[in-house]
Design brief:
This protein is of the alpha/beta class. The protein is built from ten helices and twelve strands. 32% of the residues lie in helices and 24% in strands. The strands form two sheets. An eight-stranded mixed beta sheet has the order 6-7-8-3-9-10-12-11, sandwiched between helices. A four-stranded antiparallel beta sheet has the order 2-1-4-5. Strand 4 and strand 5 (74-75) form a beta hairpin. Helix 6 runs parallel beside helix 7. Bound molecules: adenosine-5'-triphosphate (ATP) and magnesium ion. Adenosine-5'-triphosphate (ATP) binds at residues 15, 24, 42, 44-50, 60, 213, 277.
Length: 321
């Protein structure tokens, strides 16, 4: 018996592309313990969303999943449709970047919030209503009764994302998959919404996978961080250790290129070159063409994620650098 709620073991995902198949996620091994928050960080196209979606098998048409996904001791990839549905509606919830795209614009906020409780949890409409108002208060919306009668277009993006969080809390899931939940919001609202999500998650002992390309945000909210590049995880460390001493050259690049408020810099150093998706990765280490430390051995074989003094790093040069 382990304390791991979610286990991804060499997870891979490929999709059809013409006559071929394209790998989008490769060899992803990651665990999330009960009550733990893990941040999944990386540039655009690295496969973060596909990894999260694989957890509930919400993948593109024709996609093939490989490896193992285990949730609470059961293999998700082998679940029959009915149990998969139960998993998605009750135990694992997803929060997306754009709440507007996931709330029916013609129904009221009240309908949206009470629906899942009434249909999936068999709560009476009256009790669901009372719970919804209480949850709105939990996410900092005080005039709940009034908001319940409003439609999505009457609420700002920040308020709507709070409504989304309230809807997630309503079903009391064990795991929240939050895919860039605050990217569409302005900076102030971003930190407010993240703080609410972080606090409520802790209070309720929920686990979370937080996807973001904002390393700082992830570090402030999560216990551990995993860095993804070209469909693979290249580094995993406790959040504080990773930001203090990143071990993979890519993580280091992300660290130095992030904007800092406490230091006036003329231009931010950026990682040269463009990120690639898994199927575009060159031979050897996928990051090698952009890496300042690349050596001949980096072009020879794909580096495995190795355990190195408490961290996991996929770089053959870690010990020398
Ligand atoms: N429905 C799809 N069919 C085929 N390929 C897809 C599909 N969705 C995404 N991809 C490709 O899969 C790769 C990984 O995409 P993914 O959305 O997981 O990246 P991401 O890390 O979430 O990026 P972002 O930060 O931009 O959200 C990308 O190359 C993307 O173009
Ligand atoms: Mg994404």
């Amino acid at each position: 018996m382990t304390d791991d709620l979610l286990v991804l073991d060499r997870l891979s995902l490929d999709v059809p592309a013409g006559r071929e198949r394209r790998t989008l996620v490769e060899d992803v091994t990651l665990t999330i313990a009960r009550g733990e928050a893990v941040g999944l960080v990386g540039e655009s196209g690295s496969g973060k969303s596909m990894t999260a979606r694989s957890v509930i098998r919400l993948t593109p048409p024709g996609a093939r999943l490989g490896g193992r996904v285990e949730f609470d001791g059961r293999s998700v990839l082998d679940l029959p449709a009915r149990e998969l549905r139960a998993l998605r509606t009750g135990r694992i919830a997803m929060i997306f970047q754009d709440p507007r795209a996931h709330i029916n614009p013609v129904r009221t906020i009240g309908d949206f919030l009470t629906e899942a409780m009434v249909t999936n949890l068999s709560v009476t409409p009256r009790n669901a209503h009372a719970t919804a108002v209480r949850l709105l208060a939990d996410v900092g919306i005080t005039n709940g009764e009034h908001r319940m009668r409003q439609h999505p277009h009457e609420l700002s993006g920040g308020l709507l994302q709070r409504v989304m969080i309230a809807s997630v809390l309503a079903v009391e899931p064990d795991l929240v998959l939050a895919d860039e939940p605050t990217t569409a919001l302005d900076v102030t609202t971003q930190s407010e919404v993240m703080a609410i999500l972080g606090d409520l998650r802790k209070e309720r002992g929920m686990s979370m996978l937080l996807i973001t390309h904002d390393l700082e945000l992830a570090a402030a909210t999560c216990d551990r961080l995993a860095v993804m590049y070209a469909g693979r995880i290249v580094e995993v460390q406790p959040a504080e250790a990773l930001t203090r001493s990143p071990r993979h050259p890519y993580t280091n690049g992300l660290m130095v290129s992030r904007p800092r408020l406490d230091r006036a810099v003329h231009r931010l150093p950026v990682i040269p070159g463009q990120p690639v998706a898994a199927f575009e990765a060159p031979a050897g280490c996928a990051f090698q063409p952009r890496c300042a430390h690349a050596a001949p051995q980096c072009r020879a074989a794909r580096p495995e994620l190795r355990e190195i003094s408490g961290s996991r790093v996929a770089c053959v040069r870690t010990e020398e650098l």
